């Protein structure tokens, strides 16, 4: 297929297509800009798609299309009987990428693993604060600094993790993007040159694609890594054409300016399915959208106020308007496709009269608040502005005045973490490893306050249950603990749970090899384009 080039794609024509007429260039119309290229520093899927998946690899990887951790940079591993020691045997012969700005002199070894993990968990590590204003949010949210006692190099191809306690989801956790393995040799070079920040701007890894360059908010360019340990990709060049508007992404897809796009507008899906030049994949998403109240700020520090507001939200109207049948109202903080989902819980009914009465009984009058609306489409919320407008109308009916605010995506993510943030922030989550812990502790645990826990909610009873589930190996017992935790969540209502959506991925019919991920990842190492 010969691509037609619009503005963003045209920027790449001279770079790629003039070099080799036979080169295969795959263009992905991504929905947003990455915050950076060091996966350990961030939590957003948009950033992981641009950094962790093309450039880096991890000790374990998720088997395509599943949530099963399988061998990655580690070809094998053993676990001690008490669950506190994990020994990983690394693959031999794994090469780091050679770029215009770095030429490695050695292959992957245990030093790289120790460096990649220790910098995230040790406050005194020389690379712990190399990017001002950022933090190792995911590692902290997963409790890694408290969990991991040490990361030890046994020999060049053997690494041992010693934990302070058993951790049931540990193998799944280290397969996640934040645990990507970086080159210590590259970091040492940058340190010697006084260019540390380049580690987050010009990445080097062992993944399927080598980073070429990034034009801010427009284009990211990669080329295939012919030395990739998993086998060289079939495409020669990968392009992320950053296109924030869903309708524009669709137009580019129809025009042949990109091969695949994420997060289509719900109103466009039927037309996409009817277009003979396109094909559409879909599956239930492992996700949830929510409105997180700041539970440390009055009057949202009162559960009865939060529950009153929840009863005023017409979730069905949001689902109908934003998703047009491609989502369902959410009642729990984990999706119904996930094990331990507590279906016995009853959702808050939409009842404006009851909501108004509950606010009056809580002594709340003339409430004004902000609803934060995301500026980008996400699988769990295709149009946050529209959803916010529906909630604004609903709240007005119970005497609550709402101002809708938003910011550029990276700023939105950063500002919404603030412990003194005003109002309620709309966000969501697509599971990163298929374990309930990745929702319940990562998003709602006490250790995640000031980070992924946008509700700033620390409930000791809830936290004790999810922490106990972490150290319990029996799945049936873990299920009971998570079911109890969901009851507490519903009683305390730190969020208004909004929806669980279908994941829909349209692409050109010439595309083959793309595997839809239940984790919401967009990866391209196996894709091909028919000539």
TrEMBL record:
**Which protein, by its recorded name, is this?**
ABC transporter substrate-binding protein
Q: Where is the signal peptide?
A: 1-23
- Chief place where the protein resides: periplasm
The family database entries (SUPFAM superfamilies) matched by this protein are listed as:
Periplasmic binding protein-like II
Q: Where in the cell is it found?
A: Periplasm
* CDD domains cross-referenced by the UniProt entry: PBP2_DppA_like
PANTHER family xrefs: D,D-DIPEPTIDE-BINDING PERIPLASMIC PROTEIN DDPA-RELATED, PERIPLASMIC BINDING COMPONENT OF ABC TRANSPORTER
Domain Solute-binding protein family: residue ranges: 69-448
């Amino acid at each position: 297929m010969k691509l037609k080039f619009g503005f963003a794609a045209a920027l790449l024509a001279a770079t790629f297509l003039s070099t080799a007429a036979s080169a295969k260039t795959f263009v992905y119309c991504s929905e947003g800009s990455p915050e950076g290229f060091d996966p350990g520093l961030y939590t957003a899927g948009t950033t992981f798609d641009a950094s962790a998946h093309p450039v880096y690899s991890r000790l374990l990887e998720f088997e395509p299309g599943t949530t099963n951790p399988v061998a990655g940079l580690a070809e094998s591993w053993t676990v001690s009987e008490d669950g506190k020691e994990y020994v990983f045997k690394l693959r031999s012969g794994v090469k780091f990428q050679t770029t215009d700005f770095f030429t490695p002199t050695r292959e992957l070894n245990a030093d790289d693993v120790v460096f990649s993990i220790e910098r995230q968990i040790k406050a005194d590590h020389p690379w712990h604060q190399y990017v001002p204003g950022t933090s190792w949010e995911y590692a902290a949210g997963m409790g890694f600094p408290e969990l991991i006692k040490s990361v030890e190099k046994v020999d060049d191809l053997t690494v041992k993790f010693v934990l302070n306690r058993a951790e049931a989801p540990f193998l799944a956790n280290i397969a996640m993007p934040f645990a990507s393995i970086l080159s210590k040799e590259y970091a040492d070079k940058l340190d010697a040159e006084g260019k540390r920040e380049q580690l987050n701007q010009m990445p080097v890894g062992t993944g399927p694609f080598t980073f070429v360059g990034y034009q801010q908010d427009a284009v990211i360019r990669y080329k295939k890594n012919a030395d990739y340990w998993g086998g060289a990709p079939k495409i020669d060049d990968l392009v992320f054409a950053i296109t924030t508007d869903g309708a524009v992404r669709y137009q580019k897809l129809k025009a042949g300016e990109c091969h695949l796009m994420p997060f289509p507008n719900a109103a466009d899906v039927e037309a996409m399915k009817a277009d003979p030049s396109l094909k559409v994949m879909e599956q239930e998403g492992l996700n949830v959208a929510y409105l997180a109240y700041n539970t440390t700020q009055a009057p949202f520090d009162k559960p009865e106020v939060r529950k009153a507001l929840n009863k005023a939200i017409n979730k069905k109207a949001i689902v109908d308007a934003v998703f047009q049948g491609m989502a369902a109202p959410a009642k729990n903080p984990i999706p119904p496709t996930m094990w331990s989902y507590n279906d016995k819980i009853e959702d808050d009914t939409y009842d404006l009269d009851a909501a108004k009465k509950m606010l009056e009984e809580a002594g709340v009058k003339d409430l004004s608040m902000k609803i934060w609306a995301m500026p980008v489409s996400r699988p769990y919320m295709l149009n946050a502005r529209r959803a916010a407008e529906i909630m604004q109308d609903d709240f007005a009916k119970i005497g609550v005045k709402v101002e809708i605010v938003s910011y550029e995506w990276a700023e939105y993510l950063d500002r919404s973490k603030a412990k003194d943030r005003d109002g309620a922030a709309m966000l969501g989550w697509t599971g990163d490893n298929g374990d309930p812990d990745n929702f319940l502790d990562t998003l709602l645990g006490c250790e995640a306050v000031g980070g992924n826990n946008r509700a700033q909610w620390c409930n000791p009873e809830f936290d004790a249950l999810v922490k106990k589930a972490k150290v319990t190996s029996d799945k049936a017992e873990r299920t009971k603990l998570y079911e109890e935790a969901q009851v507490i969540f519903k009683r305390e209502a730190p969020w208004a749970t909004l929806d669980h959506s279908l994941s829909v991925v349209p692409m050109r019919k010439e595309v083959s090899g793309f595997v839809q991920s239940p984790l919401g990842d967009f990866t391209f190492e196996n894709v091909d384009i028919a000539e």
